[in-house]
Design brief:
The protein contains 10 helices and no strands. The chain has 223 residues and is mainly α. The protein has one domain. The radius of gyration is 20 Å and the shape is elongated.
Length: 223
């Protein structure tokens, strides 16, 4: 049981850490808080990760209810989440900086509190992270699974907080080239996660009772 709990927590960290990508968020954080003091940056970072933890935890707990309400199957959710994660991963691999991100950054510069948006949403807990969290909730079978996922989310937000607090040192150490390289590495890991989501969903569909029964009926009919 302990091994299963640890594996679930580790799977949560591996799935969420690349998609939250704290290193890239640190670059945005430094840019929009350039005029703030160290204490103000610390408060913004702390509130941002608290919001992130709250958002992901709410979607984790409410994930099953959301799926039932909209009639979404687990394979369907995993395929949709996988496609979304792959799209984000491809943009990271290409190091794209779209106009939407530039507009978001310019708007954030005019705000006094950037902890909820754009820091928590969409930087740390955007649609991709939410989709992954709901996908993780679909695989829960008991309350211990929820505690493992929540622990994994907590580890991710702690890493994000430490990264944001040390954002100036990280940017000075890695530089723009290093940040882009790390972003591409995270993008590759995220691409693997997205493809695995689709593979798992496809296997689930292929071995489902309905598909197997129809296949057997087709074989019997053809004979």
């Amino acid at each position: 049981m302990l091994t299963s709990w640890f594996n679930m927590a580790l799977a949560t960290i591996v799935a969420l850490l690349p998609i939250t990508n704290p290193v890239s968020t640190a670059a945005l954080f430094m840019s929009i808080t350039a005029k703030d003091s160290l204490d103000e940056r610390k408060q913004q970072a702390l509130r941002g990760v608290i919001y992130t933890f709250g958002i992901l935890t709410v979607f984790l707990i409410a994930g099953t209810l959301i799926m039932r309400f909209f009639g979404i199957s687990i394979p369907g959710l995993r395929i949709a989440g996988g496609v979304m994660v792959i799209r984000i991963a491809m943009s990271m691999l290409k190091a794209e900086n779209g106009g939407v991100e530039k507009e978001t950054e310019m708007e954030a510069r005019q705000k006094q509190d950037i902890s909820f948006t754009p820091l928590a949403m969409p930087s740390l807990s955007g649609p991709g992270a939410i989709a992954v969290t709901i996908g993780l909730s679909a695989g829960t079978r008991q309350w211990l699974d929820y505690t493992a996922i929540i622990f994994g989310i907590l580890v991710v937000v702690v890493v994000a907080f430490i990264t944001l607090r040390m954002s100036d040192r990280i940017l000075n150490f890695f530089g723009t080239t290093g940040i882009n390289a790390l972003s591409k590495i995270m993008g590759f890991l995220l691409l693997c996660v997205g493809i695995q989501f689709i593979i798992n969903a496809t296997i689930s569909i292929a071995v489902s009772e309905e598909v197997v029964s129809r296949l057997l009926e087709t074989i019997q009919t053809s004979q």
